Amino acid sequence: MVVLSKPSPMEQFTTTATTTTSTTLFPLIDLSEPPESSKTKLVAACEEFGFFKVINHGVPIELMAELEYEALKFFSLPLSAKAKAGPPDPFGYGNNKIGRKGDVGLVEYLLLTTDTQSDYQKFASIFGEAAEKFRCVVNEYVAAVKKMACEVLEMVADGLKIQARDVLSKMLMDEESDSVFRLNYYPSCSPEFQDSGGRNLIGFGEHTDPQIISVLRSNDTSGLEIYLKDGNWISVPPDQYSFFVNVGDSLQ
Description:
By secondary structure, the chain is α/β, with parallel strands linked by helices. The protein has helices spanning 35-48, 61-75, 79-82, 124-127, 130-159, 169-173; strands at residues 2-5, 28-30, 51-55, 92-97, 106-113, 180-186, 213-218, 225-227, 233-235, 243-247.
């Protein structure tokens, strides 16, 4: 999933939970290290935090920037144009107030299949000939992220001594996989969604993800928080060049 905010350095999205200042550093997994030395750290990160940051992941920075450019180009269109790509059934464009459990504000999103054979017909009426460019960028990005996710899942299986090594990753790569790719865009909000200082308070409330893992990336926008065993929330500093992996309920 890619999280996109309004293209402004001051725009933020936050959860509604209270954050406690903490010097705790969440785990960092370097995929350039030998698997034997990193898989133990990865399993410990899953068990202790349920969350970790991935660096040297092999997804080209240029590709990440290109996807973000295409996504922002889409979300900057008039609502009447974007609506042609919706509603999601199950894939497409959505625009609604978010959630019921402590969520605040509005979210626009694109929910897309990870099947690289998809033709993205919904976007042809919006992008015209450029729809093929959009499809190619998404497919190339998804393929690169899938490769990274499979490497992570195989290291988890190794660390847990699960046989076969690809028992988790092959579910992601299966032709009938129900994995999805989602781009979230948080537009600027009306005064009802601002605090006393005029800052926007936009985002999802506390929750867990039902999947095996969720792979997240932000366009250098702060707001992501994780909940620790000691009962405190800590903020995760944004890093647009890295990925963050959240352990889902299924893997837990």
